[in-house]
Amino acid sequence: xxxxxxxxxxxxxxxxxxxxxxxxxxxxxxxxxxxxxxxxxxxxxxxxxxxxxxxxxxxxxxxxxxxxxxxxxxxxxxxxxxxxxxxxxxxxxxxxxxxxxxxxxxxxxxxxxxxxxxxxxxxxxxxxxxxxxxxxxxxxxxxxxxxxxxxxxxxxxxxxxxxxxxxxxxxxxxxxxxxxxxxxxxxxxxxxxxxxxxxxxxxxxxxxxxxxxxxxxxxxxxxxxxxxxxxxxxxxxxxxxxxxxxxxxxxxxxxxxxxxxxxxxxxxxxxxxxxxxxxxxxxxxxxxxxxxxxxxxxxxxxxxxxxxxxxxxxxxxxxxxxxxx
Length: 325
Fold this sequence. Notes:
The protein is mostly helical. It is about 50% helix and about 0% strand. Strands 1-2 form a two-stranded antiparallel ribbon. It starts with 8 loop residues before the first helix and ends in a 20-residue tail after the last helix. One of its GO terms (biological process) is response to oxidative stress.
């Protein structure tokens, strides 16, 4: 049997370098800032709680901001970057223009407080993930561990968001929405659970009034009349909006799922969840079992918070969340 030749010194060097590189890549942990910024959680919680008390729609705004940041290309805070004369950023993409300012403001306030306590240490993407979880708990939702150690993206382009058709629209067919979630590793059940974020917050009239005006099936007749009345001045005032959940608009619970079979869903996508046989069983499940919904929502939110994250040298820690260093 032929004797194997030993590795040459140069080959051994590159092998060791490869092994070191693979083991040196930072991993997300729940205690990532325990030494570098020990008051991280307290600072985020105190800052956003104050904001929520002043503006009760902050929780819904931050959770929506979290989804619009994470779902297209991963949780990298690219949604926060402002446009420049040379680049139109994601936040100015048509699909993101309706994102409430309270969400951006909450993250900026937390970042400012953290920079004073721990300069150039905490990423904006970690702030979004932690703030979304903390505000969810504030309005009655479930708690789940948030893993930390993300880096912020150095790129934010509205053109990439539009070209890739990367975010589900309220008017999208259910088959398309399911494909968008499945392509990111999310099941139909997880998609329906994440739709429960509509338990809080509001939607602008432009998102649904056309369907109401056409007398589309699915709406409770009295609810449709109320929506037309609420949005009657919409052409002159495009900021008009309606709560997603008319029963408990400021409380995170399972009323959203109870409302849909009664024709009290607001968006076309809400009605689609009940009319599609692939999603309807989960609507029924969450309507009758809030504990199950809370558990599934928490798991899906944690899974989304880990999607496409950047760590180590693949990203940066921005000094300001709205600008690349």
